[in-house]
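Form 7-S
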Amino acid sequence: MKLTHLPIITICLILATGCAATKTRVAEPARHSYTIKGKTYYPLKSVHSGFIQSGVASWYGPGFHGKKTASGEVYNMYDLTAAHSTLPLNTVVKVTNLSNKREVTVRVNDRGPFVGDRVIDLSLAAATKLDMVKPGTVPVQVTVLSPGSSVLAKKADAGPRKPFIPPAPNPFYPGGPTRILALLGS
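Output:
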């Protein structure tokens, strides 16, 4: 082998090594992906205003009230917030109940729901505004209003917090009204 070919061979080896490293990185999951019940979710890094998603909404309340959310803040079931599996945290969305056309604006501050075909999990306050507490789930359309912004959805109730007594047992929350009242300290 001539010495004049040595620099060309060296460059080829460096380039080949660089390509191999790139292929390995491409195969790795996104940095902020997470796996729940064997399914891996890849949260979006960004989303545009007007992004629309349709599916089923559910609500969550007493069992999570006072616990930390994915955003690090404490969940308050009386705030207009929601959990979404892939929208960026702090994204403000309009949720429309397709059964009765009621709407509510919420801020995504948590991850979920992780059940079936559900696309968004709403706080108790948001579910109340959509008139979906009793059925537990409803078909909805989710529209991004403000992608990942610091604009916060308004609180549902600026006054003192009152215990919530559901009109009927929530089939998605074990223990029904008795358990809910116990959790609320009534």
